[in-house]
Structures are given as C-alpha cells and as structure tokens.
C-alpha cells in the first residue's frame, strides 16, 4: 500500500472521524484507536485498535507495532507519560507531548497561562479536600465553579451559589473526575457577555513557524457541554486582537504543529483566557460548512507540514447538537429529510450506543446571517428523531 503518511489516532469520536476524512484526502493511512469497537473514526479509517488510551502498556505497544509518522491525540484522557517517552525516542507526537501533558490537567495549563505567560484568567485556586474547597470559595466569592482538574465536556463540573452547596459540588467532582488525582479547580464565576473558541493553527511557514487564526466561533453551553456554535462571532477589533495575542503566546509556548481550540470569555472589551485543546474543538464542527478548509483539514495540513492560508475566512454559519436522552444499544434515526428541508446539513456520528446527553450528531447550516444560521441549525437538530430499540 502506498500512502503519504501513517497516522495513529488516539481517540475515535466525531472529531476524529472528520479528521480521518481530511487526512485520507491528503493520502494518509490512519489507524484509529479507542476504548470501544466501531467508534465513529474507526468506521472511516484504514485500521483500528481497541484499547483504553489510559493503558500505558497497550499505548506503547500500539505505537511500537504501527511505527506511525504522527501520533495524533483525539481525546484528553491519554497516558501522556508514554507520549513523552516516545517523543524522546523520536516519535512525532501532535502537536507535542508537552502540549498533551499540560492540557490534560487544568491546573498544569492554568499555571503556564496565568503564571508563566501572564494571561488574564478568572480568579482561581486548587483544592484536594473539602477544607481547601471552602478556602478557595472564600477567595473567589459566590457564585463559583468547581471542576475536577482532569475532565472534559463539563463532567464533574458545578456552579456553586452558597457555602452549603460546596460539599455536594466536591463530591460530584470527585465522583466524575478522570484519573486518580483527587484535585479540583475552584474558579470565580465569570459573568461574561459571550464566550468564544479561537481556532489557532501553528504551522510551518516560508520562514520558520507561522500562526494563523480562524474567525472567532461563538457558542452556548449547558451543563458545561456545548449546545450550539456560530461563526463568525461578532467581536470588537480590540477584543479579537487581545484574544489572538494570548492564543499566539500559548500555542508558541506549547510548540509543535497543529490546530488548537483556544477558549475565551469576553466581557465588554475584556478578554479572559479559559482553557484550550491542542486539537480540533467540538464547537469548531461548524467549520465543516463555514470555511473552505475546516478545522480538521487545517489540523491535517499543519501536522503534515503543508501550507496554511494566512487569512481564513468564514461565511455566516451555525451548528446545533443532536443529543440522545436514553441508554440504548439499538438506535435508529428518522426525520432527516424534514431536518434538511430548510437547507441544513446533518452529520450522524454512528456511535454504537447512546446514553442521556451523549452527542450523536450535529446539524450544520449556512445563511445570510449567523442568527438565521442558528435558527435553521437548531430547528434541524430538533427534527432528527432517535428511536431506542430493545
Ligand atoms: N469560570 C467560569 N465562569 C463562567 N462560566 C464558566 C467558567 N468555567 C466554565 N464555564 C462554563 O462551562 C463551560 C465548560 O467549561 P470548561 O471549558 O472549563 O470545561 P470542559 O469540561 O473542559 O469542557 P470542554 O472539554 O468541552 O471544553 C464553559 O465553556 C463555560 O460556558
Ligand atoms: N469536548 C471534547 C469532545 O467533544 N470530544 C469529542 O467527543 C468524543 C467522545 O464522545 P463520547 O463521550 O460520546 O464517546 C471524543 O472522541 C471527541 O471526538
Ligand atoms: Mg472547554
């Protein structure tokens, strides 16, 4: 078989699936890995491996067996020490082992962003027991947000309004955290006007390394998980410049090539750094229709050392998620024709099982304005019906 590059993809969800399609268009051979079989990206990849990304032995074995040109993390929960060890042996970890290690832990990336790079963040502290949670809340005041240092998509996250809710929030965080480090971040609640993801690409340029930006993506979250996103988000030039400046600092510090999803809260002209993913971002699924190079295309190009446009444009577009509301292993979908009648596009991820709030698909729409695109995407998502069989 001939191919341009061999990629080992660690995590095979919906973001990985689109990435595989982009990489395959560039002639890559992709081995998709995840903890369960038939994961979305496996269905479109050349080969698959089923093991937990947190299992160091199996992760090392997969890298040694396949000898990939690039190891591309797709989920946060990965035995990142193994990635560091492999990078030291010359394996190309995307974007860098350091980026995957720091961003997997909220405290690690927050220390770099706030202390080393001096980025503006919310007031915060860390806690490893209830007493420290109480001390943290004294510092932030109420409301505050409590999150496990290791989690994503809002898992274990709660907003606390008074002293007597702290114990419940601590217990909830510990019960829903990933990994074995009982540690949370207590963050001041930012009463933002809106929040954005700034997709930032670090890539090879004519001279040295370049950094390119996509137009900002606005989004709305519930339970700490994204519900809808739109692009371009309306922002003042000063606010965009401030966000770009912070994103450039953080991606240059993390190093390597690839696309990063840098999250910010915006209040007036004040831009507050929240966190980032060293990989395509869920709110960035909208770029599949808004940009001529999607976030997945940009990630694949940057990794493979290919050229990235300096200016990436977006037409007014939106995405809205399609969520399950039950546990099931037998799923059927209907209503696609009605959902698409007003021009929306529907992506069904093909996850083999559902659970309440699991993201199963997304509706995408372009229109004359982002408001109109949001309306079309939301209506379309609401028309897709999931049936749960025996
Ligand atoms: N300090 C805060 N003030 C106000 N809202 C917040 C704060 N922290 C988090 N949120 C809300 O919760 C959402 C999820 O938080 P965050 O991005 O930190 O979690 P996550 O679990 O890493 O999510 P993901 O992995 O999907 O990016 C944010 O997008 C925002 O809407
Ligand atoms: N915010 C991170 C994110 O959106 N990650 C995406 O969700 C998948 C896991 O979904 P699942 O929990 O339904 O298996 C991941 O594999 C990735 O594609
Ligand atoms: Mg986030």
TrEMBL record:
Gene3D superfamilies: 3.40.50.20, ATP-grasp fold, A domain (3.30.1490.20), ATP-grasp fold, B domain (3.30.470.20). Signal peptide: none annotated. GO terms for cellular component: cytosol. N(1)-(5-phospho-beta-D-ribosyl)glycinamide binds at residues 14-15, 74, 282, 351, 358-359. Pathway: Purine metabolism; IMP biosynthesis via de novo pathway; N(2)-formyl-N(1)-(5-phospho-D-ribosyl)glycinamide from N(1)-(5-phospho-D-ribosyl)glycinamide (formate route): step 1/1. Keywords: ATP-binding, Ligase, Magnesium, Metal-binding, Nucleotide-binding, Purine biosynthesis, Transferase. It catalyses: N(1)-(5-phospho-beta-D-ribosyl)glycinamide + formate + ATP = N(2)-formyl-N(1)-(5-phospho-beta-D-ribosyl)glycinamide + ADP + phosphate + H(+). GO terms for biological process: 'de novo' IMP biosynthetic process. It is an enzyme of class 6 (ligase). ATP binds at residues 106, 147, 152-157, 187-190, 195. InterPro entries: ATP-grasp, ATP-grasp_carboxylate-amine, ATP_grasp_subdomain_1, PreATP-grasp_dom_sf, PurT, PurT/PurK_preATP-grasp, PurT_C, Rudment_hybrid_motif. Its EC number is 6.3.1.21. The keyword Cell cycle does not apply. GO terms for molecular function: ATP binding; magnesium ion binding; phosphoribosylglycinamide formyltransferase 2 activity; phosphoribosylglycinamide formyltransferase activity. Pfam families: ATP-grasp, PurT_C, RS_preATP-grasp-like. Mg(2+) binds at residues 263, 275. Residues 111-304 form the ATP-grasp domain. The keyword Nucleotide-binding applies. Belongs to the PurK/PurT family. Involved in the de novo purine biosynthesis. Catalyzes the transfer of formate to 5-phospho-ribosyl-glycinamide (GAR), producing 5-phospho-ribosyl-N-formylglycinamide (FGAR). Formate is provided by PurU via hydrolysis of 10-formyl-tetrahydrofolate. Homodimer. NCBIfam families: PRK09288.1, purT. This is Formate-dependent phosphoribosylglycinamide formyltransferase. It comes from Pontixanthobacter aestiaquae. The gene is purT.
